[in-house]
Structure formats: C-alpha cells, structure tokens
C-alpha cells in the first residue's frame, strides 16, 4: 500500500516515530503541503493522511487510485466525506485522543485568569515582589473557584470531564447538553444555553461547530452574560464572533477570554483579540502534548492497518 502523509510536521515535528505506520506500507511523509501541490504529491497513493490539508471532491476526482483518507485529528471537516462515500473512499478520524490535554488547557486558562500566574511571574521578573514592603505582593483581584458558577456548553468527552473537575473544585456546575438530565453525574445540572448566559461566572465552550453554534457568542449573547464573567474557548474558533468578544473585553462586560483556537489560524496580525485587554490566547496547542500526539499516531496507524485488513474502524461520514 502506498501511503502519503500530507502535513505530518504538526503531529510529529521529529520527536516521535512513524514506525507503526511504516509497517502498513510504503510511506512518504511531507511536513507541509500547499493546496496546489496535493494532487501531485498524492498521485498513485492508495491512502492519504491529512491533518489540515483539505481533500475536496475535485482533488479526489484526480486521484482514481485513492481508497482511503485518514484524518490526523478528531474533526474531519477538511474532507468532503459525502463525495468520498460516493467514490467508495473510506474516511476515518482519531476520536478522543486529546481529551485529557484539552481539559488540562481549559483549566490552565481558567486558573491563569483567576490566579494570574503569568502576570505575577512577569511582575516578579521586573522586581515588584523584591521591592514590596510586605512579605506578599498582589495588584489584581484574586478569588476562589469554589462557590462560583461554571456553565459548560456541550457534554461530550471533554465537556463532561471539565464539568466533573469543576465540581471537584467546588464550583456550581450547569451544562447545556442534549443528554437527559437524569443521566448526568451528581452535581451537574442541565439548563439551556440562554440559561447559562445569565448565571455563569465562567462559561466554557466544548460543543461542535455547526450552523447553529457558529458565532453563538456574539454581541447579543455577551450582553446577557454577567458583567465581568470569564469566557473560555478550547473548542472551535468560530464559536465566537472575535470582534464582539474584543469589544466586550474593552468595555468590561467580559472579564477575561482564554482561548486556544481562533477563526483563522494563524490569526491575522490585526485581529482585535491580539491586543484586547484580558485576552489570553494560546496558539492551538491544547491537543499537542506529547502523550496526546503519541495516542493520535498510534490510533492513526491502527486505522490504516484495520482498513488494509478489510475491517475499517473509526469510519466517519456514513
């Protein structure tokens, strides 16, 4: 089997091995592939692996030998799965590999906004604590998570784990979810999205990006939130209207925004969030711990092997 990895660098910049995949066939790995180079690089391949490179119907039409596309991620919107199905091309993804790492980043953002860890580390390097007249030094409000209300939008693998950990921190946990309220763990209460807006001291987004959820956080919904509430987005950048979030930060309606995703990645240099007050942005790295990437590569190779054996797993779009 001829296997081509179109954009392997983000998954494996050199600290992991492609050995398990190489056991499945003849493997060529490209660090990155421009849109105009996809067909030439994929010519003759039986299987393509992609992280962010788009595999459209037009591209598949030019690759008659292609039988399989493996997405090196959980989200598979980069592949036209309906067109693939019509052409008899199997498409798979890698589900749930990054749950722990994304949950960890969610709380990293939350704790940074409440405890201001980065701020005080920077202040200390500038000598503020050394110059203090007291044994301690702070110049921002500090507060406990216990007793605060967190609203969780979406209770999939990540959202559920965030909700349970928030409960363990002593937070009052409410969730917007399609799950039946009777099936939720003790201490997690179901409500509507509109209900979450009015009660949440912290609102965290863990839902899929759909036509209904696109820019669900906007000027109108931000105005319904508690003044000074914190917003966290480790889901998808397009769940929020970034200009509206920047404006809400500037006027104090929103107390802080912690995000690992943006609508355009990398963002334009003039994106208003890059200079907005109390905006804390990480460069889409929640998924990228070494442990998570090891799991990703192991499952991706297992997906290819299962397909080669005629028993495909983690198939999407059917």
Topology:
Elements: E1 2-5, H1 19-22, E2 26-29, H2 38-42, E3 47-50, H3 57-61, E4 68-71, H4 81-86, E5 90-92, H5 99-115, H6 117-125, E6 149-153, H7 157-168, E7 172-176, E8 188-190, H8 193-199, E9 202-205, H9 219-224, E10 229-233, H10 242-250, E11 254-259, E12 279-281, H11 290-308
Parallel strand pairs: 1-2, 1-3, 3-4, 4-5, 6-7, 6-9, 7-8, 9-10, 10-11, 11-12
Helix pairs in contact: 5-7
Provide key terms for this protein.
seven-stranded parallel beta sheet, 11 helices, five-stranded parallel beta sheet, 318 residues
Q: What is this structure, in a nutshell?
A:
This protein has 318 residues and is α/β, with parallel strands linked by helices.
Description:
This protein is α/β, with parallel strands linked by helices and 318 residues long. It is 31% helix and 16% strand. The protein is built from 11 helices and 12 strands. The strands form 2 sheets. A 7-stranded parallel sheet has the order 8-7-6-9-10-11-12, with helices on both faces. A 5-stranded parallel sheet has the order 2-1-3-4-5. Helix 5 (99-115) crosses helix 7. It is globular. The mean pLDDT is 97.
